[in-house]
Amino acid sequence: MLEKKYVDAIKAELPPDIPITTRTIEFIRNHPTMHRGSVRIFTGEIYTDNEFGKLRKYSRKKLP
User: Fold this and answer.
1) How far apart are CA 41 and CA 53, in angstroms?
2) Do 18 and 46 meet the contact criterion of CB atoms below 8 Å apart?
3) Inter-CA distances, 47 with 2, 7, 16, 20, 25, Å
4) Which among 9, 27, 40, 64 is least surrounded, fewest beta carbons within 10 Å?
5) Contact 27, 42 (CB under 8 A)
6) pLDDT by residue (tens digit) across 5-59?
């Protein structure tokens, strides 16, 4: 039973754009063992979509 659950989870297709909101970050912080990747993801220290959009705006400026 447990093996089938993992196989189904691996085969499931995710939508291309998963919104990162404060609610998403709180879920990650409350369930850290469910999220793997970098330490920032594991601890919930990631940017929301709005914060990331603001940072991208500044990074697109041409340098002298």
Assistant:
1) 18
2) no
3) 33, 30, 18, 8, 9
4) 64
5) no
6) 777 877 888 777 878 888 888 888 888 787 777 787 777 788 888 888 888 877 6
To the nearest 10°, the Cα dihedral for 23, 24, 25, 29?
A: 100
Give the number of other Cβ atoms within 10 Å of residue 15's Cβ. 6
- Tokens for 19, please give them: 């919104």
| 23-to-30, 57, 63 alpha-carbon distances in Å | 11, 24, 36
Contact 21, 48 (CB under 8 A): yes
